[in-house]
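Notebook entry, structure prediction.
Reason for the run: the old model in the group folder had no record of what sequence produced it. Starting over properly, with the input documented here first.
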Amino acid sequence: LQPYSGMTGYNGIIARLQQAASDPMVDGILLDMDTPGGMVAGAFDCADIIARVRDIKPVWALANDMNCSAGQLLASAASRRLVTQTARTGSIGVMMAHSNYGAALEKQGVEITLIYSGSHKVDGNPYSHLPDDVRETLQSRMDATRRMFAQKVSAYTGLSVQAVLDTEAAVYSGQEAIDAGLADELVNSTDAITVMRDALDARKSRLSGGRMTKETQSTTVSATASQADVTGVVPATEGENASAAQPDVNAQITAAVAAENSRIMGILNCEEAHGREEQARVLAETPGMTVETARRILA
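New structure, fully documented this time:
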């Protein structure tokens, strides 16, 4: 779920969302986000899962202190989007880079010969100049992916596709994101859980006609804060038995982490990965890639 220190992959986010969505003790989910973005692969599927879960339970996103690019895509799928006064958001665009190391290698006396079958097999290789036709193809893909990005944000937020495209991948700070329609509310990050808890309580009160006691609210916020330290996807819980449910949740998280670590190490250490360590690493980072599938690819 967390293959690198301080970072959570799309697969980890999805796993935690599914866990929280199926937990009857969870009233809502807060995504505490601090990300400049991520890979295209997996981002759109993850955003769709967030949108799916928000139809089951409220899913809020907090830009603390950044949710740009793929981070903005995920935040857009949430029920409500919070930003801090210095949060950086937006950057609704895509990019890729091509490097040509041919001249540098030649100076070192290294000559690369690519042996291949299929005229497009080595398009974009890093050992030669990028031909104009290949560049045009890659640019077309970037434009198509950006439009797909804009369409998703539009569907999630209600902004028009053109309005999203007109941002030209600009980055917004704090209140600017609200003015641009990419966020809903400015908060202090330390107040985010309380703001969400109060909103959920008010919603419950409207639906049931009842009111929660101040004591219950205090207990709930405390339980939620404890859960936040463990999961990174902060569920708002309720009731006297919330703390009693923690060991079961922790056990589930531990099991999920162990399973993910086992998957990653299984790919990296399989016999087929010997001599192909770089490709094995890429496969291990791919959400949903099983050890069996990776072995077949590496064979």
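Summary: The beta strands are 26-35, 59-68, 80-83, 88-90, 171-173, 185-186, 233-237.
The old model has been moved to the deprecated folder.
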